[in-house]
Design brief:
The structure holds two protein chains of two kinds. Helices cover 65% and strands 0% of the residues of chain A. Chain A has six helices and no strands. Chain A has helices spanning 2-19, 29-41, 58-72, 77-88, 103-122, 134-157. Chain A is elongated and about 95 Å long. Chain B has one domain (34-192): Glutaredoxin (3-Layer(aba) Sandwich), CATH 3.40.30.10. In chain B, 41% of the residues lie in helices and 18% in strands. Classes of the chains: A mainly alpha, B alpha/beta.
């Protein structure tokens, strides 16, 4: 049993080792932090929804290599993002800029919220005394009669 | 009052249906190329077969060129090679931008001789449309072009400006719709100039 557990653990650990097979050496900790952040923020243009840190596609490998190169050459975060956007468009960054098209993603939810609020405010509370029609009046009289009857019964029970 | 109660949700519903219906037929992989109408990025790369020859942007000046990004490891490339060869026999100029799949070029184990041998084998078998192949050793130029994989093909005009960026293989249908009209126009311009 122990051997099985040990083997399974070894397998689990070894896969995570494989995932970090590429070893990049950084001069400063800041560069390492930048690299991690950038590879998490940049989207693989080939795969539908993976960042380049996760993806094993060839293009993701190449982009990681490029990010490493650019960082060690002294480029900062924004410069690397711009470099990639110039080549792969806004798609490549997980934080899309607000444009004429993407502005609707902000406008629509808020306008639905406002519309809902407006409907709630505009809706009049049901007012029995003012909005009663003739049939309602008859009904109201009936109700009064019933209440009187009920009260009389309660009296009787005492 | 009754009218707006029906009309407002109906309009919202119809808009939503229209929006989602369009989504059914949209290709999530389709993206605008960033290099269209841009000059070919500056490069200086060796010839695949004779690395002592260095190609630069000059190779695109004065002629309409189709730059085909490919590799022998790429399955779709093998499918389009015969058709590209056919086109090249009709006078279309093809230049290859070759890249190898060795994941890390810095530590790649493949020798150049091995790559050359593989390319020769493939082109002997399937046809060779290429005037020559530019060897994108570090895949930097592919990255500059926004290439996401192979095959991809660029139509470059006489001034070295990229006019079409096609992702995927070239077949008769793609050629007729996406390339031929502009290609013919550019050739005609070149003749009158």
């Amino acid at each position: 049993m122990k051997i099985i557990i040990a083997t399974m653990l070894a397998l689990i650990i070894s896969t995570s080792v494989m995932a970090t097979q590429e070893n990049y050496a950084f001069e400063t900790d800041q560069q390492r932090v930048d690299f991690k952040r950038l590879t998490a923020e940049l989207r693989c243009p080939m795969c539908q929804n993976q960042n380049i840190a996760d993806s094993d596609a060839m293009i993701a490998h190449d982009m990681r290599r490029k990010v490493y190169q650019l960082i060690t050459q002294g480029n900062n975060h924004d410069q690397v993002i711009d470099f990639m956007k110039q080549r792969y468009g806004d798609f490549v960054h997980y934080q899309p800029p607000v444009t004429n098209t993407t502005i609707w993603l902000w406008i629509l939810p808020f306008s639905v919220l406002l519309l809902g609020g407006w409907i709630l405010v505009r809706r009049k509370p049901i007012d029995i005394n003012n909005s009663v029609s003739d049939t309602d009046k008859v009904h109201a009289i009936d109700q009064d009669a019933l209440i009187a009857k009920a009260e009389a019964m309660l009296e009787k029970d005492k | 009052m009754i009218n707006t109660r029906f009309i407002v949700p109906l309009v919202v519903f119809v808009t939503l249906v229209f929006f989602l219906y369009q989504g059914l037929f949209s290709d999530p992989r389709e993206r605008d190329s960033q290099v269209l109408a841009q000059p070919m990025p500056t490069f200086s790369l060796p010839d695949l077969m004779d690395p002592s020859v260095i190609h630069t942007n000059k190779v695109f000046i004065g002629q309409v060129t189709l730059l085909n990004i490919w590799g022998v490891w790429c399955v779709t490339c093998a499918i389009e090679l015969p058709y590209l060869t056919e086109l090249s026999q009709q006078g279309v100029r093809f230049v290859g931008l070759y890249y190898d799949q060795d994941l890390d070029p810095d530590f790649g184990t493949k020798t150049l001789a091995r790559v050359q041998q593989e390319v020769t084998e493939t082109t002997n078998q399937l046809g060779n449309p290429f005037e020559f192949n530019i060897f994108d050793v570090y895949r930097d130029t592919s990255l500059d072009l926004g290439v996401t994989g192979a095959p991809e093909t660029l139509l470059i005009d006489q001034q070295g400006v990229i006019r079409v960026h096609h992702i995927g293989d070239i077949n008769p249908r793609v050629w007729e719709t996406k390339f031929a009209p502009l290609y013919d126009e550019l050739i005609a311009q070149g003749v009158t100039q």
